[in-house]
Design goal:
Blueprint (H helix, E strand, L loop, with lengths): L11 E6 L9 H13 L2 E6 L6 H6 L4 E7 L9 E4 L16 H12 L2 E7 L12 H13 L17 E6 L5 E7 L1
Parallel strand pairs: 1-2, 1-3, 3-5
Antiparallel strand pairs: 4-5, 6-7
């Protein structure tokens, strides 16, 4: 599998998946948002129901979709890896209504989008818990280790700051943030 750095010069939609009320399950949202902000990429915050945002994913002009979610990869807590959807067969933690693997299949077969999964190994996904320090530190280290726009061959540093549109979930919290180019 290629590294994430090899995909940063593509038109990419970053999709954050996770439940903010289940400890490290929020890691997909946190890491997804940080990556999108650092590289000025479109970001879709799906929380635990990514299938509800299938239309937005299909209609995105992005040719690559990066699904960011916790995955039990049997590694140390905070381990982060780029995976193909096929690699999720026996590894996924099922805290969502629809499996990330199934979602990737639909995106690939319907619109021929390339789908990658950025998996994060959780330490604790219990209800009512917070992001663990080990996973929070791993996220920060991972994002900091990626080249800045000026350090890479990507044109990201030349993009103007996009307008943002947010929608709210039933409880009033921002649910979707899509940066338009």
């Amino acid at each position: 599998m290629n590294t994430l750095k090899e995909y940063l010069n593509r038109e990419m939609l970053v999709v954050g998946v996770g439940n903010p009320l289940r400890g490290d399950d929020v890691a997909g949202l946190v890491l997804g948002e940080k990556l999108a902000a650092k590289f000025d990429l479109e970001y879709l915050r799906c929380e635990e129901i990514p299938e509800s945002y299938l239309t937005e994913m299909l209609e995105s002009p992005a040719d690559t979709i990066l699904l960011v979610d916790v995955v039990d990869m049997k590694v140390e807590a905070g381990g982060i890896r780029v995976l193909s959807p096929d690699e999720l067969a026996g590894a996924s933690i099922s805290t969502h209504n629809c499996s990330v693997s199934l979602l990737a299949t639909v995106l690939t077969r319907t619109k021929n989008k390339e789908v990658l999964v950025l998996g994060i190994q959780p330490a604790n996904i219990a209800w009512g818990e917070f992001l663990t320090p080990a996973v929070a530190e791993a996220i920060d280290h991972f994002v900091d280790s990626l080249p800045n726009g000026s350090d890479s061959a990507t044109p990201l540093q030349h993009r103007s700051m996009p307008a943002a549109r947010a929608t709210k979930s039933a409880n009033g919290t921002p649910n979707v943030l899509v940066r338009s180019r």
